[in-house]
Amino acid sequence: MPVNPRRATLATVAASAGVSVATVSKVLNGRSDVAPTTRSLVQSLLLQHDYVAPSPRRGDATAAGTIEVEFDTDINAYSTEIIQGAVDAGAEVGVGVVVSIRRGADRTTVWARDLVSAGRRAVIAVTAEMTARQLAALSRANLPLVVIDPLNLPRTDVTSVGSTNFAGGLAATQHLLSLGHRRIAYLGGPATAACNQARMHGYRAAMEAAGAPVVPGYVREGHFLYNDGVESGAALLDLPEAPTAIFAGSDETALGIIEAARARGLRIPEDLSIVGFDDTQVARMGSPPLTTVRQPLREMGGVAMRTALRLAAGEKIDSHHVELATELVVRGSTAPVSFAGVPG
């Protein structure tokens, strides 16, 4: 049977299955008093018609709903800061937060429909790669989306929240240059990630302005993870002309580089200066404490939550992209190159 291009209703599915609307409702609600063959038929037609339960009306008892905060990687120090900001902002208006981990392939039409059925009012996706098909599924389900630190944006009208990544990359590199370093490497995240591109361009802009050449092999990509720092940091330090300073695209990566340096008998910051990015708890707990670019992660989570709630309420927003200011925080992992064991 051809699928109606308009949004399907319970009556549409019931007519296709030759059953009552009440029977379709029972299937949706997981009731047991439906014959297995009928249940299977109705479930198949719900998928065929791309049925999405209507969102709760304002004023309903369930209207407050919940907001889904989704990650596509395991929860880490960066994630917890985002979650705390979103939870705090939600608590101010009595809205709950559900945290989930979904890889890109898990985001399907069924995923969008299930979110609506579970009472979600909007989705906040963190450092997620969203495809046009996934965006369309959310749109059909009338679920607003806000992306934090997006890896890609297939449409320019997708609402996103980030920080001044270019300015942060510029400040981190200028700090190292001011200490006399010229052999400065950058170890970042995925090559296609918008936030990584901005940090890398800030690094390159500072190097070019100072007349410091970027040595071949000094710019490397990763996934902003600790193991990236250990592995790619080792590769950088084993180069014939090793860097005297490394700007890492995340605090986790920076700590991995510190471990790679220690395995080679190098001291931080006497032999190698390192700057991270994020200013999570691990930066302050490092040994030595990490010089890093503070990204206002809690504030970003809060802004994303408030924006998602505005979109869910049908309000218009002033801008599809919001950037919050970054700030360089100097601690013990950087020092003048004249102190380094490797000649500058």
From TrEMBL:
It holds the Pfam family LacI. SMART domains: HTH_LACI. Residues 8-62 form the HTH lacI-type domain. InterPro entries: HTH_LacI, LacI/GalR-like_sensor, Lambda_DNA-bd_dom_sf, Peripla_BP_I. The keyword Lyase does not apply. GO terms for molecular function: DNA-binding transcription factor activity; transcription cis-regulatory region binding. Keywords: DNA-binding, Transcription, Transcription regulation. PANTHER family: LACI-RELATED TRANSCRIPTIONAL REPRESSOR, LACTOSE OPERON REPRESSOR. This is LacI family transcriptional regulator. The lineage of its organism: Bacteria, Bacillati, Actinomycetota, Actinomycetes, Streptosporangiales.
